[in-house]
């Protein structure tokens, strides 16, 4: 396993609770849209075993041509040891990244793509949308639906409806409106539905989509292949 040590190049305050850490691209480090990585703080590998409290699984919110690895995360007032350390890191500090992989690349199958997300989960979709804007081949249109009860919505300058690009972005701040919209989107029985958020959020969305007769193979999750059956293989008739 190769560990890439790199420096924080810039810190962007997206909202009062969300920051994006832009990291220098180490030589030889590559990724594609929808990628996640293991993001670790100094000292995580100092002992005999890795200190897991200093490692987090994070989505990369940028594309390689932006020349920075973007890590976008929510840091609340009361937070974990990891987030407390991260909050106090400054530009120039070193962090590590390793085990980078994409579970949710943009599928180009001449279908409509629906991006369902909760809060900062939208960061996973930023590279997919950017990739689509630059190369819309074999994607009919993209519809992004994000729920964030804080109402401090992310990336609103990019996630803005653009009919000429066949892109729609919608933000809601409550569950009722969110799930009503999911049901409407599920009227498209051929669409591809991506879901990013907590495990509970995934389960609730899958339940709604399956009730609307969306098949498991139309549902994309940011999970390793071996984890998918846990979410997609339950029987609705039970």
UniProtKB/TrEMBL annotation:
GO terms for molecular function: ferredoxin-NADP+ reductase activity. InterPro entries: FNR_nucleotide-bd (IPR039261), Riboflavin_synthase-like_b-brl (IPR017938). It is an enzyme of class 1 (oxidoreductase). Keywords: Oxidoreductase. Signal peptide: none annotated. Its EC number is 1.18.1.2. This is Ferredoxin--NADP+ reductase. It comes from Salirhabdus euzebyi.
């Amino acid at each position: 396993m190769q560990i890439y040590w790199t420096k924080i190049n810039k810190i962007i305050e997206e909202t009062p609770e969300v920051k994006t850490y832009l990291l220098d691209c180490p030589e030889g480090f590559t990724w594609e849209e929808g990628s996640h990585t293991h993001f670790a703080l100094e000292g995580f590998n100092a002992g005999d075993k890795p200190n897991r409290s200093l490692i987090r699984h994070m989505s990369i919110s940028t594309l390689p041509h932006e020349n920075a690895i973007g890590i976008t995360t929510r840091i609340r007032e009361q937070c974990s040891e990891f987030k407390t350390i991260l909050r106090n890191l400054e530009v120039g500090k070193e962090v590590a990244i390793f085990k980078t992989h994409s579970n949710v690349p943009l599928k180009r199958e001449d279908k409509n793509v629906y991006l369902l997300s909760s809060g900062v989960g939208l960061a996973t979709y930023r590279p997919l949308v950017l990739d689509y804007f630059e190369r819309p081949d074999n994607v009919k249109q993209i519809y992004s639906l994000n729920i964030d009860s804080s109402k401090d919505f992310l990336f609103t300058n990019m996630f803005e409806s653009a009919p000429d690009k066949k892109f729609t972005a919608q933000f809601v701040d409550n569950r009722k409106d969110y799930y009503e919209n999911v049901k409407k989107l599920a009227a498209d029985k051929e669409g591809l539905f991506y879901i990013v958020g907590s495990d509970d959020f995934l389960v609730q969305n899958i339940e709604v989509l399956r009730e609307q007769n969306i098949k498991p193979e139309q549902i994309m999750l940011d999970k390793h292949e071996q984890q998918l059956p846990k979410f997609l293989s339950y029987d609705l008739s039970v």
